[in-house]
Amino acid sequence: MIGRHKVKKLLGVLLTVLFVLLVFHSLGAQKIKMVDGVKVILNGKKPTAPKGRPVTIKLTEELVIGLSDNPDEALSEVGLFVVDKDGNLFVVDSKDRKVKAFDRNGRFLRLIGKPGEGPGELGMPTGVQFTPAGELMVEDATNRRLSFFKPSGEFIRSASIADKMGLLSVLLDGQGNCLGREIGLSGNKMFFEIKKYDLQLKPLFSLDKIDFPVPLPGSGAKINLMELSSIYQFDAAGNIFYGRNVAYEIKVFSPQGKHIRSIQKEYDQVKVTQEDIDEILARIPTTGDGVTNIKDMFVFPDYFPPFQFFLLDDQGRMYVRTYKKGKAKGEYEIDVFDAEGTFIAQFITKAGLMIWRGDKAYGIEDTEDGFRVIKRYAVSWQ
């Protein structure tokens, strides 16, 4: 017979072991460590649901913008878009060279800007942002300037960026400072330098510099498009979230540029197929100067980068669109991280999500007929 004392002792040991196992399991193999003053959060391949309960995120389509026989209301080539506090959308149509405004129900409101080179005219609009003052700032690549409009459509002013070879993907914080991707040339190489600028577009600091060869005819140099990609976002406090795509790592920098946190995740590589390459090349013009075949300038890796894109919501959560495909064409897996950097959920969607605000998400999606539209989704957490 085993005495009661020994039974209680054995039960105590078993409970201790079970507790350790349960705690380890609940961490989902997440590790946190400090490296040179930087907090590093390393997540495993499986999500760690809050309080041990699996999280399911459901997107329900509730609005489609861009399908219309009226050319003013249709979207020829969707660029970026923004949403105001009332749910109105302002969409860059790069082909029509205008910004198109729609209300929260998808009803067309107005056109902003028009093609041209003069004040209030747009050459090749590529991006749109709200300034802290509530103005619309439109990025114009060919006119090499930033144009400012009232949401009601009136032109206000412009700011020249002609002193730079090129400035792309401009993103504003709550104080009017911005991040941008500046183009430069050094020897036989070009580069993208990701910089933060003040209100007068004076550089404050550089986050990263990405070199790539100039594919001159006869040089044999080719560009790996996937190595050029980098993503950045501001959070509500002005911290910068930055990912280079060469590793599953999103670095967090303070508003002053100090590296304070790194969010990492283990992942399975996704092979690049010939079908993938053909699909990418189909979106690139066949010729440039009539002699050079632009498609011959590119080379593709054996595997996709860890992720395509990420965005932050107003709660500080991060949504990372990976290259892991779903069952239907155009579907990809999204990894979800909480405000602390813990990997908490996954879901699959066709939408190229770009804005997530409260219980609404907005993304760009291709229809079955090949039209690119903007969709709004109602979000439910289950």
> Helix proportion of residues, in percent?
under 10%
- Average pLDDT over all residues: 86
Oligomeric nature of the chains: single chain
Would you identify the CATH H-level superfamily?
TolB, C-terminal domain
Q: Measured on Cα atoms, how large is the radius of gyration? A: 24 Å
Count of domain modules: 1
CATH architecture: 6 Propeller
Class computed from helices, strands and strand pairing:
mainly beta
Question: Roughly how many Å apart are the termini?
Answer: 50 Å
So how many helices?
Answer: 3
Low-confidence stretches: 6-28
Q: What is the highest CATH level, the class?
A: Mainly Beta
Cross-sheet strand order for the largest sheet: 1-2-21-20-19-18
Strand content: over 45%
Give structural notes.
This protein has 382 residues and is mainly β. It has one domain: 6 Propeller (Neuraminidase), CATH 2.120.10.30. Helix content is 9%, strand content 45%. The chain has 3 helices and 28 strands. The strands form 7 sheets. It has a 6-stranded mixed sheet with strand order 1-2-21-20-19-18, with no helix packed on it. A 4-stranded antiparallel sheet has the order 3-28-27-26, with no helix packed on it. The protein has a 4-stranded antiparallel sheet with strand order 4-5-6-7, with no helix packed on it. The longest helix has 23 residues. It is globular. About 6% of the residues have low confidence.
